[in-house]
Amino acid sequence: MAKGLPTRQEDYSAWYNELVKKADLAENSAVKGCMVIKPYGYAIWEKMQAQLDKMFKETGHSNAYFPLFVPKSFLEKEEQHAEGFAKECAVVTHYRLKANPDKKGALMVDESAKLEEELIVRPTSETVIWSAYKGWVNSYRDLPLLINQWANVVRWEMRTRIFLRTTEFLWQEGHTAHATKAEAVAETEQMLEVYADFAEQFMAVPVIKGIKTAAERFAGADETYCIEALMQDGKALQAGTSHFLGQNFAKSFDVTFTSKENKVEYVWGTSWGVSTRLMGALIMCHSDDEGLVLPPKLAPIQVVIVPIFKTSEQLLEIKNKIEPIKKQLLKKGISVKFDDRDTQSPGYKFAEWELKGVPVRVAIGARDIQNNTIEIVRRDTKEKKVYSMEIVENIVSDIENLLNEIQENIYQIALKRRENLITNVDTYEEFKKVLEEKTGFIYAHYDGTTETEERIKEETKATVRCIPLDNPQENGVCMVTGKPSTQRVMFAKAY
Amino acid sequence: MAKGLPTRQEDYSAWYNELVKKADLAENSAVKGCMVIKPYGYAIWEKMQAQLDKMFKETGHSNAYFPLFVPKSFLEKEEQHAEGFAKECAVVTHYRLKANPDKKGALMVDESAKLEEELIVRPTSETVIWSAYKGWVNSYRDLPLLINQWANVVRWEMRTRIFLRTTEFLWQEGHTAHATKAEAVAETEQMLEVYADFAEQFMAVPVIKGIKTAAERFAGADETYCIEALMQDGKALQAGTSHFLGQNFAKSFDVTFTSKENKVEYVWGTSWGVSTRLMGALIMCHSDDEGLVLPPKLAPIQVVIVPIFKTSEQLLEIKNKIEPIKKQLLKKGISVKFDDRDTQSPGYKFAEWELKGVPVRVAIGARDIQNNTIEIVRRDTKEKKVYSMEIVENIVSDIENLLNEIQENIYQIALKRRENLITNVDTYEEFKKVLEEKTGFIYAHYDGTTETEERIKEETKATVRCIPLDNPQENGVCMVTGKPSTQRVMFAKAY
């Protein structure tokens, strides 16, 4: 193991694919476009879930669960939404298989079990949820509804990439209903902040908060807010979106309420989501040619202890020596693995845990026992340092500090990389040149039309990632059409 | 609210349906047979999940995630399994909708987007998971695989009932692979114990552990273990199953390993699951004509505090008085709600929290402030008692003890009820009489054939729930055929 990982320089894309596989995060399944998330990968996702769930609850949201299936007629109710989601979806048409009379052991669709109305496997749940909300809302007293769902969704993708774009993926989708537009907008913005905080403080991935152009907006939303991250290869990755839905779904599903002033009004809505795509962002933002680099706050194993021993007596001695340290680390909520396998060499183990991105590696051998020391290697910088084991409390707080340092350091590295990859350009020529040679986020003027946006996309594969929040206003001219513009927007090639 | 709940005596079935609805646990969705689990119901399920997940991890299992879709050909590989699951399933045949040219705004299946092979929405994941395990297992060193998945599954049910039998439901499914038969059997039994512990210690639902007859066995298993609970109406409810799969799926999916002795052998498997059906068991086992009765260990709100006030000054005084108690309860991990709504009367609130099954209700008014007392009502017995607030620590530990008492009391009530509803019968006449007049678990001799079992089921609607573990052996004759029998088995009508 650990061997055979291509370098990022050689082939960034192959590096990513191999890393996902070799670090035991996930694999492609026999079902086209669907992935299997393996235990080590899932453990990272569980840590993400737990933290996000906490943040959702702290902002007043509750979890609920809505059906997997969307009746075809529901999709038809919101025109934009149907346009956006009906094109790539899994359609359930029958509810029974039967034995194939022509082939022993084979099954076939039972044509007599055809559904009257086809069911779509949810690509997102606005329609199903707003159909339920109709029964839940009568008066302003029933509002706001602040609900989140953890679920699987399916979008029939032609080209898939593990974690980044898969036919089935896991996500959370928040769906809220409010009495006023101002409240719904505030909710949309609040959840964008929650996502940005999570990305930066837990994933250690810096993000740009902004608003999508009409062309990139969620189908059925009045406004889509997003957070955009930058990967090591200079490509952007949309890491989360928060949509202000206006009264669109309330109107499609006839969700009204009686206001304090005794008037019947349509409800205002939002929806917001992040998905297992975040796993892709996490991997691509920090990892190196030796393997994963995980932020300590999301690492399933934060500290691995590798004993270096020849005999079982030596192992026992090391175990006894390390036990108080391990115990105190666990007590502080730090996850520790003591890797005492006797089937693998220390060198193999070092490479394996490096590949799997464990932030702190502790090694201890016979000489360390003599000297009362241990060797600690941090995964991010690979720096090696020998520590005294004299005082257990000290070594424990050293490790704790080191974890915090790593968390901060990998964030700073990603931030600096991004700062270096932000470029202002004034001409289309310069735009193309930077896009090809330097890559990254490019701030440029354009005339704000979907037409020009599409032309740029066709010609360069770059899209408007967002109009950053609090974007400085400045007069300029569109780099393509020369028409006037009042602000630069952020372009990039994206995953 | 709270009004209009039928009594159990009047109509047990209507009582259950109305209770689920009025207590805001769940509702039927617009999608036939699928339910919406509402926030209050989902909060109970989250508590169940958290505890079960902890127990799975403590017994060495990790979570992972496998695809929603099962290719038709996978189902065909295990004959028994196909027989059991292909008959009621959601079949995905197409991957695109398109605009209906004959009807503006309408969508239709795009016939050009027909799948080469149909996909089944998983009714259970043995086939998909064993297909993955083939790639994960080579040597005895790769075993055991101890994996669990939290997921949604779909079984096309004709008659559905919220929580008890729904087309889509949520569950966990453990799937393990072992080098030896003994290990796999031990795992099957261990997980049955985990389920029994969870049911009894957390749900406060006593269960009988046993083995299913061949007729009731999981399709594809060599042996199915189960836990069976008894509801208040004397009907049984299967609350969890643990299957010893033998080498069946290993053979169907060609999963072999090289043993320590360097021989290539098939892997041994188990699978085990519990679902949102447990919610039904929880509701039906403990609740009464006033509403839900929740075991404190699974109640989303364990203590509700209802202030009785006329003015905002009075409310403030109560708030200040109760704050230290609330804080200390929270510190002990007890969930507390302070219900200071000014839109509802205390009486309304009492009825609402009674309906929602909150174990402990605290009321405090102006007179209590004067006397330095509070009134505490326990949900299970409805007993009311006045406590001194002199010493905060005392009142907090009184409440803590009360929660433990309630947990134990509702278990004991359910246990006694069950003891009274266990009957040994010797003749078929007696069997039918007890089944109709007394109901409950009936222990009787039968000849052990599927034929007789089916006859009993047809004639009485009772099934063999299980052969209890450690069942006493005694000679007898089948109550139907008069053939010899070596043990009584447990019959009941079941949900």
Chain-wise SSE layout:
2 copies of one chain form a homodimer.
Chain A (H helix, E strand, L loop, with lengths): L11 H11 L3 E3 L6 E3 L1 H20 L3 E2 L5 E3 H6 L1 H7 L5 E4 L2 E3 L7 E3 L4 E8 L4 H11 L8 E10 L13 E11 L2 H22 L4 E5 L11 E8 L5 E11 L1 H5 L3 E3 L5 E3 L1 E8 L1 H10 L16 E5 L4 H20 L4 E3 L7 H10 L4 E5 L1 H6 L1 E6 L5 E5 L3 H29 L1 E3 L3 H11 L2 E5 L4 H11 L2 E6 L7 E2 L6 E2 L2 E5 L3
Parallel strand pairs in A: 3-9, 17-18, 17-19, 22-23
Antiparallel strand pairs in A: 1-2, 4-8, 5-8, 6-7, 9-10, 10-16, 11-12, 11-24, 12-13, 13-16, 14-15, 19-20, 20-21, 23-27, 24-27, 25-26
Distance between the amino and carboxyl termini of chain A: 28 Å
What fraction, in percent, of the residue positions of chain A are helical? Answer: 25-40%
Biggest β-sheet of chain A, characterized? 11 strands, mixed
Helical segment tally of chain A? 14
| CATH hierarchy, class of the largest domain in chain A | Alpha Beta
Structural class of chain A: alpha+beta
**Strand order within the widest beta sheet of chain A:** 3-9-10-16-13-12-11-24-27-23-22
The CATH fourth-level homologous superfamily of the largest domain in chain A:
Bira Bifunctional Protein, Domain 2
Form type of chain A: globular
Corresponding CATH architecture of the largest domain in chain A: 2-Layer Sandwich
Number of domains of chain A: 3
